[in-house]
UniProtKB/TrEMBL annotation:
Residues 180-199 are annotated as: Disordered. Residues 124-176 form the RNA polymerase sigma factor 70 region 4 type domain. Residues 23-91 form the RNA polymerase sigma-70 region domain. Residues 181-193 have a biased composition (Polar residues). This is RNA polymerase sigma factor. Keywords: DNA-binding, Sigma factor, Transcription, Transcription regulation. Belongs to the sigma-70 factor family. ECF subfamily. It comes from the Bacteria. The keyword Transcription applies. It comes from Actinomadura fulvescens. InterPro entries: RNA_pol_sigma-70-like, RNA_pol_sigma-70_dom, RNA_pol_sigma70_r2, RNA_pol_sigma70_r4_t2, RNA_pol_sigma_r2, RNA_pol_sigma_r3/r4-like, WH-like_DNA-bd_sf. It holds the Pfam family Sigma70_r4_2.
Amino acid sequence: MSDASDHEEIERIGHDRVAFAAFYSEHLQLVQRFIARRVDDPHLVADLTADVFLAVIDSAHTYRADQGDPVRWLYGVARNVVAGEFRRRARGRRATSRIVGRALVDADDIAVLEERLDAEAQARRLYHAMSELPDAERAVLELVALEHLTVQEAAKVLGVRSGAARMRLLRARRRMRDHLAQSTAETMETTRTPLEVAQ
């Protein structure tokens, strides 16, 4: 698909229900996986998924094909929505309107989301370890390691140069290696038996 047709397709999402329904169907699982790697509550996954697609409708007119294909743009929208939720949580200002959304999620939906949460548990643990990284380094690492973007694609999502993204990725990987090595050593230390400690 050409840049021009990408732009037209995304722009239509903001005002054309059929275009939005097609985009939603095609990308729903991708968005749910993205969110399930970052949160562990199926209700919150459902809420944030809805928020991402509402943000897609609101920001469709801002899409620029020269900044990346529609999927990369969608990752950027999803990342902003999830980051916004984390900021709201950190400030203690959770929206009470979530209760209404939860009433609309039936038991089958919850079962599917719980399966997705289980499938993404390992990625979520990695994401929590990544929370120790500076924001700029974490952003590029999560897009490359969790979402399987290239460094160039991640740079476009983040609006930085490829060289800057590459340096951030190298620093992030180094910090993660050090962090994971330290965590492994601490785990081994806490699981030693009294006999092993005495030696």
